[in-house]
C-alpha cells in the first residue's frame, strides 16, 4: 500500500521553510557555478569570457533533486538529532555533494585553501573538473562520501553494508532511475532480508525518478505507478510516492508536502525500531522507502536554442556547452544563476547568510562531517587469536596432510567469536563449500526472511553474509569497511571476476585516499579465493580461470597485495597479517582439498615474513656452489608439482644441483622501484641467479610472471608454466598435464634448458614423456589418476614419510 503524497498540514514554520528553501537555492547556485565558472563567483559584475571555464565538465541533471533532498534531510537531522549519512547513487552529480559540504562548513575545515568566503568560493568553482582540481563525481575528495557512484549499481549494497552492526546509523541511499536498471541494484533491493532492526541500523532508499539517462528514457519512470508500486512492494518495501516541480506549484507548497512525507517516513522507521527493541515486532519489517519524482535539471534553463532542456535528457550533463565566447549562452547562464537570487544567499564577504546556517546541523551531525563516512576514525583493531593454536603439526616437510581453508576456518571462527560486532564474512553461497564451515557454525548465517524446519545455520544475528550475488557481497563488504569495520569475501576463484569492476573502483578509491590527509586509513579489503583452477572435480572449464590476479596487478602498487600460500600454516600466517592491515586490497588464493603440509609454524611465520625463500630441503644444491637450475613456484598445486619434480631430479640426476624457490608474496618478484614489496636486483639475482635457467611453476597465467620480472637480469632464462586456458572436467593431474604444469613436464623443461643435459638425460626425458602418456591413459580407462600420483608423498633420507595421500583429491562440494 503506498502512502499518500498529498498533505494539508504545514509541518514547517516560516523560519524553517525559509531556511530550507534558501539552503536549496544556494546549493543549486553552487552546483551551476562549479560546472561553469572559474572566477566572479558572486556575480559582482556581468559575466565575461574570462570568468567561464574553457572545458565544461560535470552533471547538472541530478543535482537540483539531490540538493532538495539534502536540504530536507538536514532539517530532520536537526529536529530529531539523527545520525545520518548520504550516499549518492547518481554520484556523477558531484556538484551537489561538494556544494553541501561547503555550505555546512566541512569543506573549508578540511581544505583550508577553499575558505568559507568569496575567495574560497572562487576556489571552489575553479577547482571542479579542472586540471589540478577535483573530480566531477562524488569522489574520495568529497567530505561525507563513502560512495562515488560513477559506476552505477552499488549504492544500496554500500548503504546496507554501512549500517550492519551500526544500530544508530541511518544511511540514505539515493538511487538514480538509470542506476535502478542495473543488475546489481535489482539484487540489492533484497538486502532488507538481511537487516536486523535490533543490531543493525536503517537504510532509507530514495528512488530518484527524473525520467532520463544520458540519452534515453528510464524504465522505472515510464511504467505505470501501480506497476512500480507492485515491484517495490514485492521487494519488501512500503513505498511513499512524491512528485514536485512539474507545474507552477508554489515552491513553498512543494517543501511543505515533502517535509510532511519525510517526517512520516522517519516516524515509521522509529516505530519499527522501537517495536523491535521492545520485542513487540516479530518477523521481517516492511521498511519504508521514497519514490521521488522531479524534472531532470529542475530549476535550470527551460530551453536552449529553441529545444527543451529542463525535464529532458539534454539537462543530464551540461545544458549549454561551449559558453565561453558565446554571448547568447553567457546571457542565459547569468540569468540562470541570478534566478537563485545570490544576493539573498551570500553576504558581501561571500559567507553564507544566517538563514542558510540555520539549516546546517552542528559538528559531526553534519552529513559531510559524519565520522561513519571517514571510517578509519571509528576503526577498532581486531582482537585476533594466536593463529598458531590452529596450526597443523608438521613434523617434517610433507609430513602431514590437511585442507588449508578448513584449517583457516577454525581460526576464523575464533576471530568471529572475539569480534562479534565489527567483523563479518561475506560470500555467494560458497562459505561452506570453501571449507570455512567452522566459521559458519560459530557465527551463523544472517537471515531475517522466512525460516523452515529443514534450514541449517540460519540466524537473525548471524555473522556470515551469504547471497548468490558476488556484486551484493562485494558491495556489502565495501560499505562495511568504508565505515570502519573488518571482513573477508570468500569466492570461487573463477567467479570473482564478476566483481572485477567493483574491485577496480574500490582500489582507485583507496589509491586516492592516500593523498587526502584527512582520510584516515581503513581496514583492507580481503579476498579469499578457493575452489581454484587446479582443483575442479565437480565442475569443468567454466570454473577454471585464475585471471583475477592479472586484473588486480593492473592497479597501483601502493594498494595491491597478492598472496599464494602453499599450505595451511602459511595461509594462517598470511591471513593474520592481512586482517591487521589498512588501506590495501589483499588477494589470497588457497586450495580447499587435502594437500601436503610443508612448513612448521615457525618456518611458516619466517617464510611469510620474507615472502619468498629457498626451500633447501626440497632441492639438491650444494652449499657454496651455484645451482645448475632453479625451480620456482607460487601457489599450492604448482608448489606440489615443483617439489615432486625436484624429487624426481634428485633421484634420477643426483649430480644436478637444483634450487627450489617458493613465493608466497607475489609482489616480491617485482622490482623494488615498482612495488614496496619488490626485491632489489641484488636479492632477486641471489635467489634466481644471473645466468642459470629458471623453470617457474605458477598458479595463474604465465604472462603475469613475465610482467613482474621483465626487468630482471636473468629474465631471458625464466620459463614459466601455468594455466594456458586448457581445461575440462577431468582428474586433477590430467588438468595439470593439459596445461604442461605437471611434475614430468617440469623435469623435461629442466632437461631441455640446462646446457649439456639434453644429450646426457635423453633417456630420462623419454621416461618422463612416457609417464605422461601412461597417466593420461589411466585416467581414460579408470576415471582417476595413477596411484603413484594419488599416493605420492615427499620422503627422502632426511625426512619422515607422512601419512595419508597428500597428492590426492577427495572431491568435495565445490558445486
Automatic annotation (TrEMBL):
Q: Does the keyword Lyase apply?
A: yes
According to its UniProt entry, this protein's organism is Ornithinimicrobium faecis
Q: Which keywords does UniProt give here? A: Lyase, Thiamine pyrophosphate
What's the cofactor? thiamine diphosphate
- The lineage's top-level taxon is Bacteria
The Xylulose 5-phosphate/Fructose 6-phosphate phosphoketolase C-terminal domain is annotated at 592-793
Which enzyme type, at the first EC level? Answer: lyase
This entry's Enzyme Commission designation comes to 4.1.2.-
**Ranges where the record places region Disordered:** 361-380, 793-815
Where does the Xylulose 5-phosphate/Fructose 6-phosphate phosphoketolase N-terminal domain lie?
14-377
This chain's protein is named Probable phosphoketolase
